[in-house]
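ugh ok fine here u go
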Amino acid sequence: MQLDLHQLRELLTAIDQTNISDLTLKSGDLELTIRKGTSLSDRPSLPSPDQSHSTPELVSPTVAPVETTATSKTAAMPSAGPPTASNKFEEILSPVVGTFYRAPAPDESAFVEVGDRITSGQTVCIIEAMKVMNEIEAEVSGQIVEILIKNGEPVEYNQPLMLVNPN
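structure:
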C-alpha cells in the first residue's frame, strides 16, 4: 500500500474532524497508528540498540490535538493582533503545504497584484509542493484586497494566501 504525503494529510484532516480517537492501518510492511489526545510520552518506543535480537516495528507518529480555526467563508474568528479580514472579505486558502510563488517564473510578472479584479477559476499564484507546481485558482470573483504571503515563503495547509472583496 502506497501512502503519499497528500493522502496522509487528507486522512489526518478527516480523522481530526471526527470523534475517532484511535486508528491503526496495516498493509504489508506498512503499519500506521494514529491516536488523538495522547502525548508523545504515551506512544510506544522503538527497541534500544542493545535489543538487536528483535526486529524493530515501524512506529508511526502520534497525532496530538490540534487547535483549529474556522475556515468557513461565512465565519470570522476574532484575532489578538490587527484584523486581517472582515466578514465581507473572502480568503484564498492554500490547499497544500509548500512554497508560495506569485509568478509562473522568476522573470515573469505576478499573476495578480493588490487592486486587480479576478474571476472565479483564474490562477492567482503557484504553490510548489514536492517539486510539483500547483496552480491555485480563485474560487470567487472580486478584487484582490491583500496578498498575505511574500514570494518564496513557505505556507501551511489551509493558510490564507490572499483576501478578496467579492463582487
